[in-house]
Structure formats: C-alpha cells, structure tokens
Amino acid sequence: QVCYFPSPCVVSAQRQVTVQEGPLYRTEGSHITIWCNVSGFQGPSEQNFQWSIYLPSAPEREVQIVSTIDPSFPYAIYTQRVRTGKIYVERIQGNSALLHITELQARDAGEYECHTPNTDERYFGSYSAKMNLIVIPDSLQATATPQTLQKVEQDSLELTCDVATETSQHSHLSVTWYRQRAGEKPVEVISLSRDFVLHSSSEYAQRQTLGEVRLDKLGETTFRLTVYHLQTSDQGEFYCEAAEWIQDPDKSWYPMTLKRSEGTVVNVQPTDKEFSVRLETDRRLYTVGDPVEFRCILEAQNIPDRYFAVSWAFNSSLIASLGPNAVPVLNSEFAQRESRGQLKVSKESDSVFVLKIYHLRQEDSGKYNCRVTEREKTRIVLLPSPFFLIPIVFWFESSISVEVTSNASTILEGENLHFSCSVRTADRAQGRFSVIWQLLDRRNRRSNIMWLDRDGTVQPGSSYWERSSFGGIQMEQVQPNSFTLGIFNSRKEDEGQYECHVTEWVRAVDGEWQIVGERRASTPVSITALETGFAVTAISRTPGVTYSESFDLQCIIKPHYPSWVPVSVTWRFQPVGTIEFHNLVTFTRDGGVQWGERSASFRTRTAIEKAESSNNVRLSISRASDTEAGKYQCVAELWRKNHNSTWTRLAERTSNLLEIRVLQPGNKSHLPLLQHLCLSQQKKTNCSLQVCSFSDLFPPHLAPKSLSSLKIKSLASRGCWRLIGGQLWCSQGWLLGTSFVWSNVRLKLSQAQGNITVLETQRVELECVVLNRTSGASRLSVEWHVWKPNHPERETVARLSREATFHYGEQVAKNHWKGRLHLESPSLGVYRLIIQNTAVQDSGTYNCLVEEWLLSPSDVWYKRAEDSSGQTIVTVLRPDATLQVDTVVPNVTVPEKSPFQLDCNILSRSSQDSRFAVAWYALRTKAGGKKGNALEDEEIERKAMLSVGPDAIFGPEGNHWEGRLRFQRLSPVLYRLTVLQADPSDTGNYSCRVEEWLSNPQKEWYRLTEEESGPIGIQVLDTGSTLQSIICANDALFYFVFFYPFPIFGILIITILLVRFKSRNSSKNSEGKNGVPLLWIKEPHLNYSPTCLEPPVLSIHPGTID
C-alpha cells in the first residue's frame, strides 16, 4: 500500500510466525533450544508464545507443553518438568523466544508447534508454525587410561584416547586434548576440528608449528597426543574431549553430544640447568690505601651437586680461578701480593666467592669481573661476567657550574624543543665531562633521556631509544663545555623539568680517569596539548538559495593552528528526506582532496578551498538544485605524526548542523534566512540583534521598493531598520545586507472575459494567450477547465503537457468529448481549444490554467509558476422551433362504403435534418356535450386511429378502424391516411398531430416541438338497409345463411341416399319376388353467389326410376 503525505494511511501487516527449520536430530540427555519468531503483528510489542507437540503415536492430537501466559497450559505429562525448570521458555525479545528442554528424553520426539495468541484487530496471516524433532540415542564414547606419569624436563609424552560413535545419521567428530591444573581453567593443547583442521591455543601454537606438539589418528578410533621436549609448564592433568556434530537444515553445525575421557596426571621435574651471577661491592669510588671486597654470588638450584668454576679478572687479565675444590689458582703478579697478605681469593660458601684487596694502589683502579662456568658431560655453560669499574682517585676540588637554557618555556605540542647546557669550570686542560639529560615529569618520575660519556659516546635512555633511533631526540657536544639536547615533534608527555647532570672527570697520575665533581641545573617546560580548545563551527551566509545560484559553507576551526599542524576536514551531507549522513568531500591531513562515494553530483559544481593562514575550509557549490538541499556538517580531525612516520588521531570534533534550503525562484513561502548575516554583523548598537529573526525575509535577488511591502512586522516594530537605496540599514548607521534587485518577471495570462453563444453541432474556439513568461527556456503545460451549470466543482476538459502531449480530461466519457476536442497552438504563447459539433451539455464557463516549468540544475523539471486566464462563458442552444402544420379546415362528404383520405401537410420545419412523428385522431363529442361547443377541448374526445414514430415504427390501429386504414408518405412533409369502406359511424372531425425530432451530437434523438392540424370534417352518406347489407353486416347471420346450410343439406342428402340404397336392395329382393321397381334420388345442385348479393338457391331434382 502506498501512502501519500499528508493523507492518513494505515498499513495492515500480515502476522507471520516462523520457527526453527526442521527436522532437528538431537541425542538423549542433551540440552536443546528451538527458536520461534513472530512478525507483522499488531498490538503490544511483547507477544506470548505457546508450545505444543504432536507425538508420532497420535499425530492429530495436540499435547500442550509450556506457555508464557498461562501457567496451567502444560498437560500432566509435562507439568512436573515445567515446574522444575527442565522445560522453560526464554524470551529473547518481545517477538522472539527460545524453547529450552534441558534433559532431552526419547519421548520428546515429535512435531513441535509454536503458537502466538492473537492480538490483532482481525485475523490475518499465520499464527503458528511447526517443526520436527528426532531424538536419537547418545552413543558417543571417549575413553583413556587413567594414570600418573613422572617426567623430566625435555622428555617426550605420548597419550592415546579412543573415540567411537554408533550414530546412524551423518555426523562429524572433533577431538581436543586439554591440560588442566588445580584452580585454573583448562588449556587447549591441540584439537582436530570437525573439518579435520588441527589447531592449538596460543600457549602451544608455536610448539605445534615446530612439530613439538602432534595429534595423530591411529586406525578408526584412536587419537594419539605427542609432546616432545616437555617443559615444566606442561605439568598437569591431560584429558581428551570428543564432540559429535550434525548439520542442521539451516546448514549450521550443532554439537549433539560432548564426552570427556578420564585424565592422566603428568609431573615434570625441572633439570635445574639455569643459574645467575651477580657481583657486589660496598661502593664504587675508592682512594689509595682503602680496602675493597668483591663478592661473586651464584644463584642456582642444587649447587652442591653441580660443577661450577669461578674466575676473577682485572681489566681482562686473569687474577685467579677456583674449582669445586675451592683451591684458588692465582696469576703470578697477584700470587705475589696474595703471599704478602695484600690480596685474598676464597670461597665463602657454595654460592659466594670473595676477592679481597686489603690496600688499594693507584694501579688497582679499573674494571673487575667475576666469571662462572658450569661443566657437564656434554656441554659447558658459560654465564656472561658481571663487572665493576673501580676508580682509584686522588681528591680534587671541583669548581664547575652548570646553566641550562631552552628555546621556549611554553610550546605547542608538536613544536621542537632545544636545550643548551653550558658548563663553566676552572682551567683544567685534561678535564672531561659526562652529561646526562633527565626529565622530571609532572608525577615526579625521573627518567634518563640521553647521556654522553667522557669519551663522547652518546646513548639514549631506555624510554627514548626508539625515538632516538628515528632522529626524534638528538644530543651533541657543540663545544668542549657546551652540550645541547634537541627534542623534535614534542608530545604532551614531554612536559616537565629538564635537568642537565654534569660529571667532571680528570685523569689521575697513573692515567686513569676519576670523578672530581658533579653539578646539575634544570629548566621547566610547559607543553600545550594540541586538542586543547579544539572546536569546529559551520556557518553559511546564504542558508537559503534559489535554483542555479551559488552558496558557500565555511568550516571554522579553533584555535588557529600553525600550518604544520595536520588537520583533516570532512564535509558531511544529509539530503532532504533522509536520516543518514554520508561523506561529501574530505580535505586530508596532507592537503589532498578525497571525494565521497556518493558525491558524483557535487564534483563538477563544487570547489573546496583551505586557507593558508588557518585550517578553515570553504566549500563553494554553484548551480544549486534540489540535490544540494539538506543538512551539512563539518567534521575535523586533529592528527599527530609520530617519530616512526605513523599517524595518531588526537581528537575529532563535529560542527553544528547547517541546513541549506534550495528554493524555486519566486517561491515566497520558503524565503532564505538572514540570521547568520545578522549575527555576524553584531555591533554595539541599539538594534536588538539577539532577538531578531530573519526567517522568511526575502531572497537575495529580490529587493522591495518599500519596507511595508516586505511585511516584516518583527523588524518594523523595532523601528531600527531602514531601507535606503535597496539596502537594509540599521538606524545606527551600519549596513546589514548587500543591495537587492527586485524581479517583476513572472508568468502572466490574458484575463479577457468572453461570452460565446452557438447552436448545437456548431464549432466553438477558445483561446488562451500567454502574455509573459519567466524564461524563454521554460516549457508550458496548458489545462482547460469548465464549470457546468448547477455543478460547483470544475471539470478538466483537456491538458497539453510540457512535452506537448495531449490528454483528455477525467469527464471525457461522460461528456462525449472524445473525438470532438482539438488543441492547437497557431503561434508562440497562443493555445486554442476547439470543440466541434457542440452539444447543449457543453455549455459552461471555460478558462485555462498554464503552468510554467523550468529545468533545474540537476536536470529535473520543476514548476516555476502558474496562472489562470479570464473566463469565457459558452452557451450552446438548440434550434428555434418553426414547425407549422396546415390548419385549413376542409369538409368532405363521401358515400357509404367509399374510402376517404386524411392528409397531414407540414408547411415548415425547424431543420432539414429533422424527423417527424405523425398521429391521426378522431374527434368525437363527449356524451352530454353541447353541440354548439363541439370543438372545445373539454367537450371533445380524441380517439387514436394510427401513429407513426420518427423511426417509422407504426403504432396499433384503433379498434373501430382496424383493417380499414392505409398509410402513405407522399413526400417528406406530406403524410396521408386513407380510410377504406366508409361507414356512417365514421362521420365526424379528424386531425393529425406532428412531432418534430432532432438528433444531438451524441446521436441521440429528442423532441423539439409538436403541432396539430385543423379539424377535417367527414360526412358519410347512409344509402339504406337491404337484405344483402343486413346479412353481410352481421357475421353470425352471414355464416348462418351462407355457410351452415351446406353441411346440413349435405348430411341430409347422404342420409337419404343411404336409406334409399338399403330400401332398393330390399326392393330388388322383393322385386325378384314381387316384380316392383326401385326409385333413386338425383344429387342435388347448390348454387351460391360469392358476392353475397343473393342468397344461395338449393334445388333438388327428382330422379328417374329405371
């Protein structure tokens, strides 16, 4: 059903209930769900559901199971299971529900029906749906031997699991091995899916790829798990889980049943091969003569059972080594010092080894190492040696001072930071500096950015390593006492206190470097996040435009970011009548332009421009049409380019909605807004701009000649607006709008009135003259209307579309206009309606309605204007009646039995195409009437003799004249009726009545007028009565005299003859005896006259006796 606004429309939906497609195969004891959905219903959004089953033993009997509305709905066989929750209905939505059967039984097999009680106004659609459920035995088995295995790290593990099923249906098996520890969730080791695909969890995926975890199928039912190189993390209980899958009718796979085998406990003992070493001392800076003790601490398991060797080294030179027997072996140089009691190497415990120097020398300053080695039968494990750098220094007094400067104390995120660390010191030609740049952030967390050691080697801190590798952080020594730090493309997290930590080094007498002093200085830096204050606003000075005009949309972004800040701007568009926005065009962060997928109609008429000084984006659309009407929205995204050339979107802002109305030219009911223009021109004046509403003011291309013609009461009432020279000014002296031009070009038709009177069947011409039109490129459609007398509603006669196609009106059949209407345009702007063969029904008031159509910029025709012409009254009359019948009164005398004639002579008629109906009447004086008034109507009785219709059909003859009338048409205007065998009773007056009939344009005959001739007097002379006339005048007497005697006499003669014949026979017999002759009678002769003038003569002649 199609609905048109604003007429109310009711769409009646059809209820449709759907249920999960069957048949479904499920195993005993499993949990099954069956969904049911209803749509197209009326009433509340929450529908109710009732489930029933038709068992195979009684397929016609409904067994009720469960209902969402009626607790007493279940039959006794299901009541207990429903009460205990083993059967229940889960409502998914108001119109969707799931039937749950937790422990499926064999007797649950059957045809299930989902029924929804009616909530509609009337029954329409389906209210239930059915599906089949087949319950099969659960034959799946998963068996494994329960056991406990003791394994050592790096051993292999093999476990088997037997999986079998006896299901007759086509099904697939999946097998999964799990490892589970106490209190933890099971971890999938490896699984074989129903599609025969191997898969492992993330913990075992890499080992499966390396082949260390395998699942093999041995025979038909055995699945073997193999794990190579066991790890301590593999410890736990291993078990297999099998699932049997079946494919439902909707092509989805469903696990019918799931079985788990008994588990195998696997314990994995570690091999304890790992160990670690650390080197400890009390401090790092010593002076000559101080004692020092180095402790090498070994961390490992089962140290007494393992073979470790420890060696001490100084500046890569071996000092001493110890085996498991703890007997040190010293180098020759250090052996002498050990013999003098200046040095000692010992084993304090199985895990602690000590090197002690009792009196440090200047040459003892350097790097000390402790190296631990484990020896096995097959390999040697060597651990990297920890070391300490022990400087032995002479005391000097440091005189350095540090000053830190930066390029800015407050910057915008993304700008570069440059720090300079200047060191002032006493003149030490051989002094060096090591510098560490540190950041103390807002949470007082200190982190090393970069440091420069005394040898000029630069190393970044752990948190800045990646940024440094891409050149985002740089440190250099520009002068011997000047160090710089550069941070490029700063981030908000770079905000804080930057500190330069300088350490002064001097070379001692023995050539070793020693620290003589440390100084630090700092400077704060504040970084403003890019998204701070980030906002976007969409404006337009022309929210209402007419066809083919242009309009601009501005997307203003605040704050004004530098040009290097990457901002992408997207214009989104929601066409009129839609609810979704789509991307129109995007100005990308790198300056490119990307058009949306649905912006084809905009591309050729849209220009996008981005200001160099800001990120504001202007969208200019030319030749506006209905396609561009709708709501616009600007979306801005703030981006940051990372050090690794990737991009991070920092923020996204969406502007206000901006509605653009594209109007047909001159449409005063939808005039554009000037509110934005008003608000953008606010100044400190007395004009109350904050309350002025400029909706429906006037289009930009229209300017009224006076303020009163604007009909802007809201502005005029304030008294602060004036129209000067076609411009709208505030009384305070500033211009609001630009100049306007008023256009008077519009569609105009001739308003001349007309009055046309014609006779039927004549031709009528009506003209519709277009005096002016908006555009020479426009097209016109012309529609003719008529208002009939006593009909208040107008009727459409004909229509000429803008494509010059002729169409009849709605009442063409009723008014028989088809074939009689003709529309022509003899010249430009002149349209002529011609009605041929007019009829009285064509009378009425005619006018024409002209619509002017223009082609919009989107190549869609729209109605620009319309106008109606003046009215023309058309009156169609019937011809005047001029029928005239001869009224001369003749008197005729005829003898009895003679004919007499009654002529009907038409002297004139109204039309040569007319037809006549003629009727003759006998005028008789009524009984009791006065003879002197015989011709008066009330004293005369008319007796119809004969009538002939306009279609030459005869009426019945009068009883008195039946059989004695003869009709003749001597000419088109002369009709004669002859009365045969006049009778004295025919004496009297006669007249003829003539009706004139005409045909209308619809070929229908109507009576125009009627006339009656003068009376014709007829006198029939009576010649007297004779026997012949009496007999012939009476039918009964005529038959009695001329017909009945003949059969009577015939019968009499036959009777006599028969008697004579019998008598003769008896006479002959007698004559033979007596000799007497017989007599016979001759046949009688009957004479009669067919003219009935004489009676018949009957003569009987006597016969001769032989």
From TrEMBL:
Alphabetized SUPFAM superfamilies for the sequence: Immunoglobulin
Membrane topology of this protein: Single-pass type I membrane protein
Domain Ig-like as annotated: residue spans: 8-132, 137-242, 270-381, 391-528, 548-651, 747-851, 879-1009
Organism listed in the record: Monodelphis domestica (Gray short-tailed opossum)
Gene: IGSF3
Subcellular location: Membrane
PANTHER family, per the entry: IMMUNOGLOBULIN SUPERFAMILY MEMBER 3, V-SET AND TRANSMEMBRANE DOMAIN-CONTAINING PROTEIN
Protein name: Immunoglobulin superfamily member 3
Gene Ontology CC, one term: membrane
Pfam families (alphabetical): V-set
Residue stretches spanning the membrane: 1036-1059
Broad class of where this protein is predominantly found: membrane
UniProt keyword annotations, A-Z: Disulfide bond, Immunoglobulin domain, Membrane, Repeat, Signal, Transmembrane, Transmembrane helix
